[in-house]
């Protein structure tokens, strides 16, 4: 006879301090310092720290912030490139109980003023290069709000660059970051979150849209995403990671915390160049880095003097953002980089789907492999739900690779919500899913593929045109370095594709001839109604993470005026 345990008995075992702790990535740092105290944690030019030193420095930062009345719920803004202090802030700030607001360094004073005011940042840790920008933004904020409590400014001094900026910040008398750390305690009893739902970070969307929204992430999501990113990518213990992706972009896709989990080494780059990437691989044994497709394009088009080929070992690259053009993926693989394609948003803690590679695909022709690798793939292990749905009734679209719907997410790595924006939250979480605003298809094998942002679809004569698909074809033209396609008003068709193109240096002289050649190439490769009726040459506006700002290009396309109906 089998005795059945009552349901209430098996579920009525209480949580206690021995069997339950709020999930947080902060413990990864303490463990790294315990297990590998003498392993290099951070390398930046001639500066090197071990994991023990990084843990102590983060303790000092948390302690010093606490001494200045920073506590649970306080927002601390950090405005800096990929330097050691930016990495330390991702631990030190939440170890004080506060929320880190890592800010895009390419913002203008007006936008920065909005972010600092909206977030109510009480402390600003700022690199010397951006001190005057912060001052300008605070003046704007003070004029706008009247009564305004001036945040505390802490300046990151960097004697390896921009001596004028360093002299300026010192003349202003602000406390420097290293001096500030000296006011803290090495063995500070830092604060665990009281609840894993407690906020760990605030980040503002900018990307390719014009209106920033404050994305709030929690400790639980950061913990799960950090581990999931390492597991999903196959990042080994002791990995050497190059910071080409800005740490301010969704907390460096949570790799700030993941690197401590795998006890790896952070190689910091203040500025990203193709030469810097290749040199770091050769000098530091870099095994992994993340980059937007535009950065990959820069790497594959580097001059012979900038490159170090063949690579001394396989280098793993994670790319996300807009779909990487298959020609760029193919060129990266030819150079010895193993590219993993992921996709996500700031609202999903960064990349949360992956084009998981299957061994049987290795025997396919290179072109087929590149096309498969360009898909956004399947959900991360930490994401509970992913689908492509009909926007009218929320039903899943057929897995036929052609029916377009909206990509939606559900799970623990999805944001808590947008700060002070209930209307946006209601829209984003409608029907129990997070709505990405991205349009895609689902293939028979379950892999999703992004087709466009809903606002980037071009409707020409009633037919939908995916700007991404037109771009992928144009990238096959040997003279094109970068391209972005948006809609332009068209007298006959309502809208028609307009291609903004950056040419490779040796093809930039005769733009009229090149425009005609690009259109001729397009007519041979794509349906006629897809062919751009306008080609505009020049550099493309980008965010700090390399995303092309299509909202700016759409404005430029409108300013070009309406394409007149052909009289032929």
Search tags:
single chain, 568 residues, alpha/beta, Rossmann fold, GMP Synthetase, Chain A, domain 3, 3 domains, nine-stranded mixed β-sheet, 19 helices, 33% helix, globular
Description:
The protein is an alpha/beta fold. The chain has three domains: 171 residues, 3-Layer(aba) Sandwich (Rossmann fold); 183 residues, Rossmann fold (3-Layer(aba) Sandwich); 103 residues, 2-Layer Sandwich (GMP Synthetase, Chain A, domain 3), CATH 3.30.300. Helix content is 33%, strand content 24%. It contains 19 helices and 26 strands. The protein has a nine-stranded mixed sheet, sandwiched between helices. A five-stranded parallel sheet has the order 4-3-5-6-7. Helix 2 crosses helix 3, helix 2 runs parallel beside helix 11 and helix 9 packs across helix 11. The protein starts with 6 loop residues before the first helix and ends in a 9-residue tail after the last helix.
